[in-house]
Design brief:
596 residues, alpha+beta, Cytochrome Bc1 Complex, Chain A, domain 1, six-stranded mixed sheet, globular, disordered N terminus
């Protein structure tokens, strides 16, 4: 989807079953394909013994916090670190005074002496049987392990936290997850609304409404008063409306939960949509329209979405000055009143609270909000007729081309989604076929990718592409297509299958690192009508994927003959090359002038 407007497309993150992290996730007993030295460095033990208190302090004070420490541990360690440095820094200054400070030398120089004493003492305390192997590495003793000999413990199993799901009489659904590790409380609400339901002549209305829920003040507090209230408490409240959902969230210290929650509910129930704030939001949005062609990557993403979904589809529409000028405060109020009702809201709260008392408070705050018998319009239709063709956007100042190829994709509830996820990893990332061939062997691009990206309730996309130097545009197109065609024509190797499955399965742990992440996933499944154990169904599906499944899915879903190809770059310099790819259609991205 490609709707470039304020409010953004936050729902894109929801469709990721396993939250990704940079780099490759290692399986137990596995190693990264690629640079052995990088693998060794990434997994070598630290040069000090982090299991010893002084060693841990040295890691923190030296800027290398232990990887496995959580937020609370880091907070405590940093506090100890500062105390440690102040004590020894003070001793250093005392030593300087005792020895006689030399003229022109800052007392801080003697603080460094104290810090040196601190480090020396820490290293001394750290010496012991556990430190011997580490010291041996740096003193000509036993060599470090070869990267192929490194092993890793199994990742922990994914578990769901205990939670309560409550439905109020007005239909509002509440999830409560108690987590007393830190004195913090966070909440988030999903609202059954989306800018895909805004009128065709009011493109941008949903995004503005989402901004002004929080940014337009309430019936009782101005925007400035809300800001001051939250700033005084180190709290936050944010709202937005994306393509498929509206969102509201808050964060507060435990001691401020009652007052922040009161304001959060007030924003949801009694927004003011102040006219001056609407005017400011429209001016800012106009500025984003004026700048939308500054980034060639943004141009490629926007125009490719329009080619896939159609410029008249809400999934491909582009906000223009005329659309923005047509939006009035009455439009914003009407859009809010149509869609924001308790029977269309899921509210989740996680943190340090008492579940019984919080439930009573929520029933008091939200229980008298009348339901509207929400009758949502049907989802906008998507034309899935195979397309095709070559399209160009001329940017003569560029020395490289931004290339995208692809087609419409599917939804997450497809039975072949696990196999397509494995296929993603066969093609992508360090050790993937595209990376190895396009970047490493041929040197055609620094960035190259291809992803089957499904959505929850409407067709997603398959997009392949990257950036390459201008003269390499045609070889880039050919090589990317050939590599994808190869997985359609022949089965992948068993080693590729196992590696890709390891990456997918091991990425799950990063999506369940906190109760808040897990709660967000449960609410998302509920919102889109998926079973609460969908992630486990998906996990079992990935484990069962075979070589035949990957090839069959590639043959069924990837259709290079019907791909749309978009090139953003210096078209004149590559016109002859592109003629070998096909007949090109130029896209005019001139921004229409604002109405006078």
């Amino acid at each position: 989807m490609n709707r470039h407007r304020d409010g953004g497309r936050q729902d894109a993150q929801d469709r990721k079953i396993g939250d990704r992290v940079s780099g490759t996730v290692l399986a137990p007993g596995k190693v990264v394909k690629g640079n052995p030295q990088e693998t060794l460095m990434a997994n070598s033990p630290p040069r000090v013994n982090a299991s010893h208190p002084s060693g841990t302090l040295l890691l923190v004070c030296g800027g290398y916090p232990p990887r496995r420490t959580d937020l609370k541990q880091r907070w405590v360690l940093r506090s100890l670190c500062h105390g440690w440095q102040r004590i020894w820094g003070g001793l250093g200054q005392k030593l300087g005074q005792k020895l006689g400070q030399k003229p022109g030398r800052s007392p801080w120089a003697y603080g460094l002496v104290g810090l040196g004493l601190s480090l020396s003492l820490g290293l001394g305390l750290n010496l012991g049987p556990q430190a011997a192997p580490v010291l041996a590495q740096g003193t000509g003793g036993a060599p470090p392990q070869h990267y192929s000999d490194l092993t890793f413990p199994p990742l922990p199993a994914i578990t769901l936290p205990d939670y309560d799901r409550i439905t109020l009489d007005n239909g509002l659904v509440i999830y409560l997850v108690e987590d007393h590790e830190l004195p913090l409380v966070q909440g988030s609400a999903l609202v059954r609304v989306g800018d895909r339901w805004e009128p065709a002549d009011k493109v941008g209305l949903g995004g503005l409404t989402g901004q002004l829920l929080r940014g337009g003040g309430t019936q009782h507090h101005s925007f400035g008063e809300i800001n001051q209230f939250l700033e005084d408490r180190a709290a936050s409240i944010e709202t937005s409306i994306g393509t498929t959902a509206g969102r509201a969230s808050f964060s507060a210290l435990r001691e401020d939960l009652d007052s922040v929650l009161d304001l959060f509910v007030e924003i949801l129930r009694e927004p003011a949509f102040a006219a001056d704030r609407l005017a400011l939001a429209k001016n800012r949005t106009a500025g984003s329209i004026a700048r939308r062609n500054d980034d060639p990557g943004g141009i490629a993403q926007r125009e490719f979405g329009k080619l896939l979904y159609g410029s008249d589809s809400p999934y491909g529409a582009t906000l223009e000055y005329d659309d923005l000028a047509a939006i009035t405060r009455d439009d914003v109020v009407a859009f809010y009143e149509t869609y924001v009702h308790p029977d269309g809201i899921l509210l989740g709260i996680v943190g340090d609270f008492d579940g019984v008392s919080l439930r009573q408070k929520l029933e008091t705050l939200l229980g008298d909000w009348p339901a509207a018998g929400l009758d949502l319009p049907p989802l906008p239709a998507v034309d899935t007729t195979p397309g095709g063709g070559l399209f160009t956007v001329d940017q003569p100042q560029l020395t490289q081309s931004y290339v995208q190829l692809g087609q419409l994709g599917g939804q997450l509830d497809s039975p072949d989604y696990p196999a397509l996820s494995v296929l993603n990893e066969v093609l992508n990332g360090f050790g993937g076929r595209l990376y190895n061939e396009v970047r490493s062997r041929q040197g055609l691009a620094y960035s190259v990718y291809s992803y089957w990206s499904p959505n929850y309730d409407f067709p997603g996309t398959f997009v392949a592409g990257g950036q390459t130097r201008t003269e390499a545009t045609l070889p880039f197109l050919r090589t990317v297509t050939q590599e994808i065609e190869a997985v359609r024509q022949a089965p992948i190797a068993p080693e590729e299958l196992q590696y890709a499955k390891d990456v997918v399965l091991n990425s799950f742990v990063f999506g369940f690192q906190s109760p808040g992440q897990t709660l967000s996933r449960l609410m998302t499944y509920d919102y889109y009508g998926y079973p609460s154990d969908f992630v486990f169904q998906y996990q079992r599906g990935v484990e069962a994927v075979t070589l035949e499944d990957v090839q069959r899915s590639a043959q069924t879903y990837l259709q290079p003959d019907h791909w749309i190809t978009l090139v953003v770059g210096n078209v004149a310099a590559i016109a002859a090359d592109l003629a070998q790819w096909g007949s090109a259609t130029a896209i005019d991205i001139t921004i229409p002038d604002p109405p006078q």
